Amino acid sequence: MPAAEAQAWAKSYDPATKRRFIPVELWTGSPWSGKREIVMGKADLIFGDYDKGNFNKHISGPKQWRHNVTDKQFGIYDRRQKSRRSPVKIQYFALREDKQALGRVYDSRYTRALISPGAKFPLGYWTQGETRVLTATRMNRVYKETGGPPTTDPDAIDRTRTRTFTRLFEMEIKDIDFTYYSMKHCLRFHWRTGSRRRAGNVYEYIYCPRHGQVYVDENLGRKKRAILDVRNSSAEGISGAEFKKLVIGNTLQRIFTSRRRSREIEVMYFFVDEEKLLMSRSTSGATQTQDWSISESGKFCYVRTGRRTGERCWENIRVEGNELIGEGRRRDQKFTLLKGKHEAKK
User: Fold this and answer.
1) Most confidently modeled of 184-188, 251-255, 327-331?
2) 32 near 43, Cβ under 8 Å?
3) What CA–CA distance (Å, rounded) separates 62 from 45?
4) Between the CA atoms of 271, 273, 274 and 280, what dihedral angle is there, to the nearest 10 degrees?
5) How far apart are the first and last CA of the chain?
6) Measured between alpha carbons, how far is residue 32 from residues 19, 94, 232, 257 in Å?
7) Taking the CB of residue 54, how many other CB atoms lie within 10 A of it?
8) What distance lies between CA 92 and its chain's CA centroid?
9) Does this model's pTM top 0.90?
10) What is the pLDDT of residues 93-114, one digit of tens each?
């Protein structure tokens, strides 16, 4: 490595604050100029586990790729891994819009679509011991049973059976700047994905300048706590008082796809006052009166009656434009705020 580049890597870490700038080049193994910017530079790297001498992975790019579900165009890196026991694993990685990480937008192992980039490698400024939780949108049950997961054929998508959901990704910096097998300025972090009800397996990765990924351990076990326990404070929702001010006298519209009926269902919640709401569904057209409540911290619940009784709740409700997004028992739920009273049409 040239002396100028070695000095750039050394300056990327501040020992006083234990803060480091992580460029894309640490992931691609490409030369780095030292500029503090997140850009997708040229990559052509063969790599693998350094301690095992198993160099069966390759990164190339960037190139343009059009998403077969959203029709959105991404600049992507093509990552491939050969195996004796299974077909070549193909993954496409793209920058997140917030540029906090690189994430997958395609994986040949999955029959679901990766709608937006997840978070697989941290980028930008990070601090020793820092943990972040990022989200991405996934679409389940995308491809028709007669076909596999194509990369370009939109006709292979069974849109009548699809549903979107939010996936959580946690990254924790364990060693932000250390020496690994004489390779300086390496990065070690833990990564996992899961849901707010189920904790995912923990992976450990080590990346070094000019070498990319040099180590991965996929068997660190499963954490007991859910990922949501460490979600960023920036994702905190509105208070109960703010929720009341928004919804009383107005309607929340909820649209979801029924897995049993394989069709889209609309539910309307008209908030009469601080205790009662009128709920109507497009499946029946009937209107029911329900009891509802909101805690000071912003946990919204209503009591379901009829065939499926019990309490239904969402918490940590965030406002994004005219939409309210609440965290349910299994996944995020999006509501659209409509002024006045509205009812679902059968």
Assistant:
1) 184-188
2) no
3) 12
4) -30
5) 68
6) 18, 19, 30, 46
7) 10
8) 15
9) no
10) 999 999 999 999 888 877 556 7
CA distance 12 to 248: 52
Which tokens in the block code for residue 11? 């300056």
Query: For the chain, how big is the Rg over CA atoms in Å?
Result: 23
21, 124 contact by CB (below 8 A): yes
The amino acid present at 322, given as its one-letter code, is: N
Q: In the Cβ-directed half-sphere of 232, how many Cα atoms lie within 13 Å?
A: 15
Mean pLDDT, range 209-226, rounded to an integer:
75
Confirm if 172 and 178 have CB atoms less than 8 A apart.
Answer: no
Residue 216 CB partners (closer than 8 Å, separation 6+) = 49, 203, 204, 205, 206
Position 146 scores a pLDDT of: 41
What would the mean pLDDT of 36-46 be, rounded to a whole number?
95
User: Which H/E stretch holds residue 215?
Assistant: strand 212-217
Tens digit of each residue's pLDDT (9 = 90 or more) over 241-290:
889 999 999 999 988 776 565 677 889 999 999 889 999 988 877 788 88
Q: Which two tokens stand for residue 184?
A: 């300086």
- Label residue 7 by pLDDT band (50, 70, 90): very high
CB neighbours of residue 194 within 10 Å: 19
Residue 146 tokens read as 């007669």
Contact between 214 and 206 under an 8 Å Cβ cutoff? The reply is yes
Q: Which of 121, 116, 112, 180 is nearest to 148 (CA)?
A: 112
Q: Are 68 and 151 in contact (CB under 8 A)?
A: yes
Which two tokens mark 124?
Answer: 């930008």
Three-state SS at 309: coil
pLDDT tens profile 136-172? 877 654 544 444 444 445 455 555 555 667 778 889 9
CA dist., res. 4 & res. 73, Å (int): 35
